[in-house]
Amino acid sequence: MAEKFVLATHNPGKLKEMSAILSRFGVEAVMPADLDIRAEAEETGETFAENALIKARAVCAAAGLPAIADDSGLCVDALNGGPGVHSARYGGGELDDRGRYLLLLNSLRGAPSRSAHFTCAVACVFPGGDVLTAEGRCDGAIAYAPMGTDGFGYDPVFFVPDKAKTFAQMTEEEKASISHRGKALKEFADKLETYLKK
Fold first, then answer.
1. Neighbours of 86 (CB within 10 A)
2. What angle do CA 88, 169, 180 make, to 5 degrees?
3. Could you list the residue range(s) of the whole structural domain that residue 132 is in?
4. For a Cys staple, 69 with which of 56, 91, 129, 185, CB 3.0–4.6 Å?
5. pLDDT in tens, 74-115
6. Per residue in 101-155, pLDDT tens?
């Protein structure tokens, strides 16, 4: 078994998260930059799972090592599931996180429903062609105004009724225990454990 898995990301936070999972199996997580790999894949998928697979396949092919990628986003019922796979680019490339969530709040003025969910898909591709996938979902609603200072992206406006808080008002531990990413990573860890035992 490969001692290294390549994580298709430039995000140190995601590397830390994945290292915690992989270290249990005696596997080291590295980023493409650590191996001097430039594998930028165009995310042309129509679902989060398709985009995660596209990224993982590109990095696996470039590195010759197992590769893990994830894709996630916000799906708002009143916007027919949008921004969905376009969450990170919602409103165009010139908007920052704050600009994107303010645009979202504007788009929902007068909407009869504010229900929404976050989805995260994780894909792992092995050089031999094997593929593992996992998905997680967290249901909530879009708040009427941003609340909280932690987190990133749409966290200040994603309200979780069970907790009576937005993601941006939660501690990292609180968020991880209920978030789409937390659920997807738990399912992925379970599937990886089964796979590695074969």
1. 12
2. 50
3. 4-197
4. 56
5. 999 999 999 999 999 999 989 999 999 999 999 999 999 999
6. 999 999 999 999 999 999 999 999 999 999 999 999 999 999 999 999 988 899 9
Task: Report whether 85 contacts 48 (CB < 8 A).
Answer: yes
Q: What is the pLDDT of residue 1?
A: 54
* Number of independent structural domains in the chain: 1
Residue where the block lists tokens 């200040």: 156
Give the total residue count for the chain: 198
pTM strictly above 0.85: yes
**How would you write the chain as a 3-class SS string?**
CCCEEEECCCCHHHHHHHHHHHHHHCCEEECHHHHCCCCCCCCCCCCHHHHHHHHHHHHHHHHCCCEEEEEEEEEEHHHCCEEHHHHHHCCCCCCCHHHHHHHHHHHCCCCCCCEEEEEEEEEEECCCCCEEEEEEEEEEEECCCCCCCCCCCCHHHEEECCCCEEHHHCCHHHHHHHCHHHHHHHHHHHHHHHHHHC
**Residue 49, amino acid:** A
Q: Are strands 165-166 and 131-142 parallel, antiparallel or unpaired?
A: unpaired
Catalytic residues: 71
Convert 158-172 to b/e letters by CB count within 10 Å (16 or more is b): bbbeeeebbbbbbee
Token pair in block for residue 166: 């937005």
CATH number of the domain that residue 147 is part of: 3.90.950.10
